[in-house]
Amino acid sequence: MDVKIPQEVIKKVRARRERLRTAMDRLETALAAPVPGRESAWLKGVRGAFGELAAAVTDHVAKVEAADGLFAQVRADAPRLADKIRKLESDHAEIAGAVRVLAQRLDAAAPEATADGMRGDLLRLLGRLAHHRQLGADLLYEAYVVDVSVGD
């Protein structure tokens, strides 16, 4: 028996994915800006873009892991995917921890000492998020044969 995911759920998932992807793109753009001679402006741009990303990550985790969230629905509809859901939940905890640490570092950063180390760490976070998003899309495809990455 094929289980179909309701269209309103797909719309919400795609909207959250789009919000996260947009925030990731903004942070990547801020990180790519030139630094020499404009350290304060660079740091300000990165902090703003990172704030958007942190909010998108927090919203994503809260909605997906809620008692009536997407993971609960997938567990009910496709229990065979419980291990993959646990992996994604573990990713959530690790990503949220990294976001907290990076937020603290950005808050405490002096403009003249941030670009080199922070840029690399933030780019690694973006890579981790991109991988996580793909695992989430794969999970939904396995559960419902629906491609939520359309438009990404």
Under CATH at level 1, the class stands as Mainly Alpha
How would you describe the oligomerization state of the chains in this entry? single chain
Cα(first) to Cα(last) distance is: 29 Å
Order of helices and strands: HHHHH
Name the average pLDDT.
92
**Bulk shape:** elongated
Main sheet summary: none
Say what the CATH topology is. Answer: Four Helix Bundle (Hemerythrin (Met), subunit A)
Record field, number of beta strands: 0
In percent, how much strand structure appears in the residues? under 5%
Total number of domains: 1
Radius of gyration: 17 Å
Alpha-beta content class: mainly alpha
- Annotated CATH architecture: Up-down Bundle
* Secondary structure tally, helices: 5
Give the uncertain stretches in residue-range form: none
Percent of residues in helices? over 70%
Could you explain the architecture of this structure?
- There is one protein chain.
- This protein has 152 residues and is mainly alpha-helical.
- It has a single domain, classed as Four Helix Bundle (Hemerythrin (Met), subunit A), CATH 1.20.120.
- Helices cover 78% and strands 0% of the residues.
- The chain contains five helices and no strands.
- Helix 1 runs antiparallel to helix 5.
- The longest helix has 30 residues.
- The two termini are 29 Å apart.
- The mean pLDDT is 92.
What is the topological layout?
Elements: H1 7-32, H2 39-65, H3 70-77, H4 82-108, H5 115-144
Helix pairs in contact: 1-2, 1-5, 2-4, 4-5
